[in-house]
Amino acid sequence: MTQAEKELILIGASAASHCMPCLDYHIEQALAWDVADEEIDEAIAVGQMVSRGGRKKDGEFSRAILQRKEPLVVERVNFL
User: Fold this and answer.
1) pLDDT averaged over every residue in the chain
2) Is the dihedral of CA 44, 45, 48, 53 positive or negative?
3) Going from the N-terminus, what domains does the chain have, and what CATH number goes with each?
4) CA-CA to 76 of 20 to 30 Å: which in 22, 43, 44, 50?
């Protein structure tokens, strides 16, 4: 993977996580690696889609909890 491709991924991740300082930094880095404005725009758009999808699922989950008929049971998983 080239550094330019990594910067595009980091731009999308920055947009998805709403980290504006990160987004500014990685756009600057991408431009230094001669990434086209259109590619940067597309990476931002993909990050925004990821963010919207997560918010939608979170909203659905929250509504399901509020509308439940049974008491909430949370299972803990030990990953160690």
Assistant:
1) 89
2) negative
3) 3-66 (1.20.1290.10)
4) 50
